[in-house]
Design a protein that fits this description.
A hairpin with a 4-residue loop joins strand 10 and strand 11. The chain has helices at 2-19, 24-31, 35-44, 67-72, 99-111, 174-181, 263-270, 322-327; strands at residues 47-55, 58-65, 79-86, 89-96, 125-129, 132-141, 144-153, 186-192, 198-204, 212-218, 223-230, 275-277, 300-306, 319-321, 332-339. It starts with a helix and ends in a 13-residue tail after the last strand. It is built from 8 helices and 15 strands. The strands form 3 sheets. The protein has a 7-stranded antiparallel beta sheet with strand order 1-2-3-4-7-6-5, sandwiched between helices. Strands 8-9-10-11-15-13 form a 6-stranded antiparallel beta sheet. Strands 12-14 form a two-stranded antiparallel sheet. It is of the alpha+beta class and 352 residues long. It folds into 3 domains: 2-155, no CATH class; 159-241, no CATH class; 263-339, no CATH class.
Length: 352
Amino acid sequence: MRRNLLFACLLALSHLLHSQVMTVNDFIKVSSVSQKKFAGCLSQEGFFRSDQYMVGDTMVQEFQLNAKKIARTKDSAYRYAQGLFYENKTAFSYYTTSSDECKEIIRSLKENGFHCEGENCQAPFLYQKNDMSVKLSSKAVDTLLYYNFTIRKDILPSPKNITYAEDFLGFHSHENLEYVFGKSNVQKDTYYFSDSDIARCSVLFPNTERQVIFIWKDELNRCTISHLLIGNSLRNKKSGKDDRPFSENVWTLRNGLRANMSLPELVRINNGDFSFYGFNSQYAGIVVPDKKGNIDFKNTGIILSCLNCSGSELMRNETVSADEAIGNNQRVYVQAVIVMPQKDYNWTAYHK
């Protein structure tokens, strides 16, 4: 009986191995090559390029299984692959109608150290490890249901090359941060914009002069930057429990902007006057998102605070001129700088 059971298990495993076209190791290998070597790498896996076209700024190359590879598979599932190329970046997309193959790939992802925060939530699912991410979704084509794995290997900045606050925009997830800076230097936390407006965030170098708070568009998986918050006076949930004093935040933007600089310094860098919301406003202390000088406040947010504004009539206005505040000897300074990505690109947007 045991021999028969073992034989049945080996037979089932043999069937699955013959039916599984791509493995996690294949995913890693293919997604790590350049566009120039991409077709050759997939050719070794039994694919040939069947089409090429542009979708927006993305070049899409489609690949089909060759006859020899199809003959070796033991099921009737349909499979194809795509290469996605954008701004010298490469991603790989694999489609299969085999639910067994899909389950085996998921099992192998976990076995290889990939983790998913939202497996109990609604698809799509995101599996992450170090500098790699695998997004699992599905789509119906006629009567067929395709399982789609989109694999991306991020090219991440080296710590020695990070000079300005904007350089942190090169990281795409909490997993990226842990991979580059180490788990001890990155903290999962919750940021309070107000009592009712909170967000899951990641804090790099928490409670130090190098602190950077990452606010994510995808809060569940802590990935895709919404914006960065630079400024030591910012208090997230865990940092509020830490009363240790630390120096001013060291990070400066390329244009010279930094937290704790005075309002006159900010006007000088902007090379002109600008307006900010008064401290009784719903948007208290925020510079009006406009461009009236060197700084585009639509892409760079500034939150101001004041040391002597509590009794000022001027500061109760809905908006206040920076020049007028300086003329009235108001001690206004930059509490925080908000850094936003210039371009947010979704590799799988062309599916929509």
